[in-house]
Specification:
alpha/beta, about 15% strand, Beta Polymerase, domain 2, about 45% helix, five-stranded mixed sheet, Beta Polymerase, domain 3, seven-stranded parallel sheet, single chain, DNA polymerase, domain 1
């Protein structure tokens, strides 16, 4: 069980306790536990199993919390959360996923309006009953109406990091069985889409029942929903539903191709097969009744005169013509990344010091980083004004003077203000090694104003990159209305890079716009936006997004050596 999984138990418990009006000191203790667990560089499970370490040595973790943490790791459940979940209908948890509607407001909706579902909330808002509540008003009511459909849809989907962790843990377990010959995840998770509705696992086995039993008994499984001789559907404790299919060896490649999708990609493959007098399905490639291919994906694609196509590209967005012409890109890989250009320290809202972040980056094999704490506009994150920023840079200088084998840039994540100005003066920005300009506020402004803000930032001679350009939060908040065509043209003209923010809740640029930026010859940087040493581990999700965009190593600026990277930076 990952630290983030353990933290999620306490985060949900704290939210529901706040809805319930529980003791605020108790709620604060759970929220502190979330922060402590989330910032740990080591696995909670490893600490529990280490005789020389105790959970109670961690900040804010007493005996009671330590026992709860150990119980979660051992059983995958938290008794107190199970109890309070029975007290509230699922709709209450759905409401907690809405932006700007925290536990206190949810409590009012539940207690004063007796709202128990998103449908009831929508009806109440449409009738003006929400705006009439104390502390709400028309703006909050309108925001709720704008979010309801998206939140309802998001309730059936999960971030890619959650899906990948669940799939990897179960696959590792299945592959421990001698009877399981091979096993992989298929579906949208294999294509590394930003969100996943459910999971598909495929395996070959000389004893399918053993694989079914192992899955049914797995600690991540909450309930077996259906079981046959070669297929089983389960619901995981995370809420994701998963299908395991055990297929014949001779059909494994065909099944993998079929269940990986996408639907649109597979339609083209089936059409190509028909043009050649063949039939393709999950069991293989057939000429009449004769099975001519199916054991590997490579064989399936070869039967329709194509090379194997990486799963991330299988969206029918031009990959077939490229494959026909033998021009498929050699996609960027995680090991190609040499630098990380977006991260935070305790100077603002990060959980680790400058030195800890530098050492953690070095331990992960990175050759250079930029430390980019927030500018002053982000007051909730203790953003830096000019005086504190310069002091912060002096501290970075001191650290990089005594840590070798990694280059450290003095950077800043500088807000683009609602009126289009930069949050810090040019005099200050000119002293930075790296300036990533971002939108945090005013995301609902009309396109014209969003455009003005981004173009002003790009024209600022000291801005080196635009970070998470739309400002979206996946499954929670839509991005700003960005006119990408004009923004990309300006970025290309002024030599400003574009970021793929690797955090699974951002992945911004998305795959489509990352490809469009590449087509404008704009260098892409993939950065983690790490707020702790553990935050570096999300880099792979940014690389996945780049692969879905068809990006090669040469398209990603931070695959270069530090010397090569610095030569790419614009000069004022």
């Amino acid at each position: 069980m990952q630290n983030s999984d353990v933290a999620r138990f306490f985060e949900e418990l704290a939210d529901l306790l706040e809805v319930d009006g529980a003791n605020p000191f108790r709620i604060r203790a759970y929220r502190k536990a979330v922060r402590t667990i989330g910032s740990l560089p080591d696995s909670i499970a490893d600490i529990i199993n280490d005789e020389d370490r105790k959970l109670t040595d961690l900040p804010g973790i007493g005996k009671d919390l330590a026992a709860k943490i150990a119980g979660i790791v051992e059983t995958g459940r938290l008794h107190q959360l199970d109890e309070i979940n029975e007290k509230f209908p699922p709709g209450v948890r759905d409401m907690l996923r809405m932006s700007g509607v925290g536990p206190k407001k949810v409590a009012v909706l539940f207690n004063d309006l007796s709202v128990t579902s998103l449908d009831e909330l929508k009806q109440a808002a449409e009738n003006g009953r929400v705006a009439a509540l104390k502390g709400f008003g028309e703006k909050t009511e309108q925001s709720i109406l704008e979010q309801i459909d998206r939140v309802a849809e998001a309730g059936n989907r999960f971030h890619i990091d959650i899906a990948m962790r669940e799939a990897d843990a179960i696959l590792d377990d299945l592959l421990q069985l001698e009877s399981v010959v091979q096993a992989k995840v298929a579906g949208s998770c294999r294509r590394r889409k930003e969100t996943v509705g459910d999971l598909d696992l495929l395996a070959t086995s000389i004893a399918p029942a053993e694989a079914m039993d192992r899955l049914a008994e797995h600690e991540s499984v909450d309930k077996v929903l259906a079981r046959g001789e070669t297929k089983q559907r389960v619901r995981l404790r995370s809420g994701i539903e998963m299908d395991l299919r055990v297929v014949a060896d001779e059909s494994y490649g065909a099944a993998m191709q079929y269940f990986t999708g996408s639907k649109e990609h597979n339609i083209v493959i089936r059409r190509r097969a028909q043009e050649r007098g063949l039939k393709v399905n999950e069991y293989g490639v057939f000429r009449g009744e004769e099975l001519i291919a199916g054991q590997t994906e490579e064989d399936v694609y070869a039967a329709v005169d194509l090379p194997w196509i990486p799963p991330e590209l299988r969206e029918d967005r031009g990959e077939i013509p490229l494959a026909e012409q033998d021009q498929l890109p050699t996609l960027v890989e995680l090991q190609d990344i040499r630098g990380d250009l977006h991260m935070h320290t305790t100077a603002t809202d990060g959980r680790n010091s400058i030195e800890e972040m530098v050492e953690a980056a070095k331990a992960r094999g990175l050759k250079y980083i930029a430390i980019t704490d927030h500018s002053k506009r982000v007051t909730m994150a203790n953003g830096l004004d000019a005086e504190r920023l310069r002091e912060h840079w002096r501290a970075i200088d001191e650290v990089r003077g005594r840590i070798s084998d990694i280059d450290v840039m003095c950077g800043i994540e500088c807000d683009i203000l609602e009126d289009g100005r930069m949050d810090l003066d040019d005099e200050v920005l000119s002293e930075a090694d790296w300036v990533v300009a971002v939108l945090h506020y005013g995301l609902k402004q009309p396109r014209e104003q969003i455009q003005k803000r981004l173009l002003n930032a790009i024209r600022c001679p000291y801005v080196t990159a635009i970070g998470h350009p739309s400002g979206r939060i996946v499954l929670k908040r839509p991005g700003a209305d960005v006119g990408y065509k004009d923004v990309f043209k300006a970025a290309a003209d002024f030599g400003v890079m574009m970021e793929i923010n690797a955090h699974p809740s951002r992945l911004d640029l998305d795959d489509v716009h990352a490809a469009a930026a590449r087509d404008q010859n704009i260098p892409i940087v993939i950065s983690t936006d790490a707020h702790s040493t553990a935050g570096f581990d999300v880099m792979r999700y940014g690389v996945n997004q780049a692969r879905r965009a068809g990006l090669e190593k040469k398209d990603v600026a931070n695959t270069r050596t530090f010397k090569q990277f610095c030569k790419m930076l614009r000069t004022a």
